Amino acid sequence: MTHPDSWHIDRPKEECGVLGLYTPESQAARLAFFALFALQHRGQESAGIAVSDGHTVRMHRGMGLISQVFNEEQLHGLLGHLAVGHTRYSTSGASVLRNAQPIYCTSVVGEIAVAHNGNLINAAELRSELEEEGERLNTTADSEVIARLLVRNMHLGPENAVAATMSRLEGAYSVTVLTPTMVMGFRDPNGVRPLVAGRVADGYMVASESCAFFPVGGEAEHEIGPGEVVIIDEKGMRFAQAVPKRRETMCLFEFIYFSRPDSVMYDTELYTARENMGRQLAREHPVEADVVVPVPDSGIPAAHGYSKESGIPFHEAMMKSRYIHRTFIQPDQRMRELGVRMKLAPLLGQIKGRRIVLVDDSIVRATTTNQIVKLLYDCGAAEVHVRITAPPIKFPCFYGIDMASKGELAAARMSIEEIRRHLGATTLGYLSIEGAARAVGRPTSDFCLACFNGQYPIPVPEGLSKMAFESPPDVGQLATVTTGQLRLIED
Asked: Whole-structure pTM over 0.90, yes or no?
C-alpha cells in the first residue's frame, strides 16, 4: 500500500499511541478499540489489542488503520477485562507486520504483552546482550527489548520489575504492559513522551493522551510523572516512583503538532497552547495583510490566535480531503508533484487578489509548504506571508519522532532567507523557541528542544539511526492472535 508520504505531505511522522485499561466486565477489547480511535493520529501503520480474562492473554494485530485491522468478529473473540492497545508509526525497526505491537512474551507470571511509544538510545547494546545470553528476538523493534527485560524481572513483583527494567533503559519511552492479572504503565525518567491515567467504565485506564478517555466515557485524572509507574488490577489503581526523576524534558513538538488539540498536557489544553503560539507569532512577526489562512487542520488554532492578536480577519481558504489515507494505486511522477492538490482544495473567493498570512505548524523538508505557496499564487494571491509555529527544525529526533535526517531538514541546509526564496513566499517568520514555550506557560528548561537547538537531554551515541539494529528479514513469522501460544502467519 502507498503511504500518504508518497504524496509529499511534508510533516514530521507520527510516533505511536499506547493504551491500557481494566474494566470489571469482559468488554475491554471493545473499549480499547474505541479509545484507540482517539489515538489514531499518533500512528497509522499498524494497530493491535491484547486482552486477558485473568488467565490467558489473547491478541490480534495487523497492518493499517484501526478500522482496517479490527472487525466485529475479531473483537468478539477478544474477551477479557484487561487490555493494552497500540497504534504504530515506526521510529525504530521496519514498517512490517512482525514489528506491529503489542509485543508478546511469556514470563514467570504468565504471558505478557507490551506496547511502547518512543525510542531507546541503547537498544542495540541491550539487544546484543540479550542475544549473547541466548535470547532469540522475533522483531527488529526496540520495543521487544523492553518486553524481554520485563520478562526477566517479573519474578521481583510488578513495581520492582519495572524499576529493574527501567534502570537498564536509556531514551524516551512510555509503555503499557498487560499480564494475565494486571495492567501497568510507566514513563521514562525525563518524561519525553506523554502518558496519563484515569477512570473509565467502573474501571481504570492509562493512555498516551487524555483525548482517549472521552470517547469511552472516561476521565483523565493523573499525568504519569517522569520515572513513575502505575499499576491497575482488581484492587484498583496505584502509583509508585520506579526510578528517580531526572530533569523533566517533555517534547515541545507534542504541543506544537503531534498531540490532539483537545488533549491536556502540563495542565494546558493544547488548542489553547496553539492559539497562544499564533498570538505570539503575530507579536514576533507582524505584517500588513488582508486575511489569515490556516493550513488545515493543524494550522487552524494558531491561525485563530494570529488573527485575534493582529486584527487581520481569519478565513479558511483551503479545504482538506478527509479520504486521502492509504491506496493501492501508485501515483505517477506528475501526480506526486501535484500531491498537495489531492489533499487541499482551494476556495478561490478567499484567495484571489488578497495578501495572505499562511499559518502552519512546521516546515521539515519544505516540499509541501512550497507546493501550498505555489497553489495560493496560482489561485491569484497577491502576497503570501508564511508563519510557522515550530522554530526552525535543524536536528533529527532520536526520541520517537521520525522527521528526517539532518541532511534533509530545510533549516539545517538553508538560512531563513534561503528557505523563503525556496518557498517563493513574500515573507517567512518562525516562532522563537522562547515564544513557543511561553505559549504553553512553561520555561524552556521544561522541554526537550533537541530538534531545534541540538541539545539532546539524553546523550545520543554517534551514528545512531532509526534502523540501528535492523536485520535481514529472517524472522518472517509473527503472531496475530494468541490463546496461550502464538498463532504464526507469514509476514
From this structure: no
